[in-house]
Amino acid sequence: MAQQEASELLNALAPALQAAAKNVLRHAFGPDGMPWGTRFAELEDLAVQVGQQLSREVLHTALQTQAPTERPPDLRACPACAGPLQPRPPEERDIQTRPGAVTWDEPVTYCPRCRRAFFPSIQEPRP
Predict the structure, then answer these.
(1) DSSP annotation of 35
(2) What is the rounded CA–CA span in Å between residue 64 and residue 29?
(3) Contacts with 105 (C-beta within 8 Å, 6 or more apart), sequence order
(4) Residue 23 belongs to what H/E stretch?
(5) Whole-prediction pTM value?
(6) Are 108 and 89 in contact (CB under 8 A)?
């Protein structure tokens, strides 16, 4: 995603993020808000941790949503023999991301002719 597209998306998301921030603070500190005398460093630590957790949740949800969708046409054939791939049960995969580890159910396909499994996140050379 280009920098300008990301900036426009963040601008569009601003109302939802502001509502989420208010919701987080209400759940963290109650309806009366932050207690008087709370150190800024404590609030900053909470904000960073919430941001990292939100980032992991966005990544996890996006991956889980995309995983069961139909594969693009260029990923439906074996890259070695061009034969049709058969779906297999997904495999749990841990991915290290900037905000932390994210787990998702990675779709798997199998080529009966080559007897090989294929995962979309692992790039295979084309013949």
Answers:
(1) P
(2) 31
(3) 64, 67, 90, 91, 92, 93
(4) helix 3-29
(5) 0.69
(6) yes
Q: pLDDT tens-digit profile of 58-104?
A: 999 988 887 666 777 777 888 889 999 888 888 888 889 999 999 88
For the chain, what's the residue count?
127
Token couple for 30: 């109650």
- Both tokens of 68, joined, read 């069961």
Calpha distance 47→24 (Å, rounded): 9
For the chain, the maximum distance between any two Cα atoms, rounded to a whole number of angstroms, is: 69
d(CA 106, CA 119): 7
Question: Amino acid identity of 75?
Answer: L
Q: Which tokens go with 104? A: 């998702």
> How far is CA 7 from each of CA 11, 47, 50, rounded to the nearest angstrom?
6, 21, 21
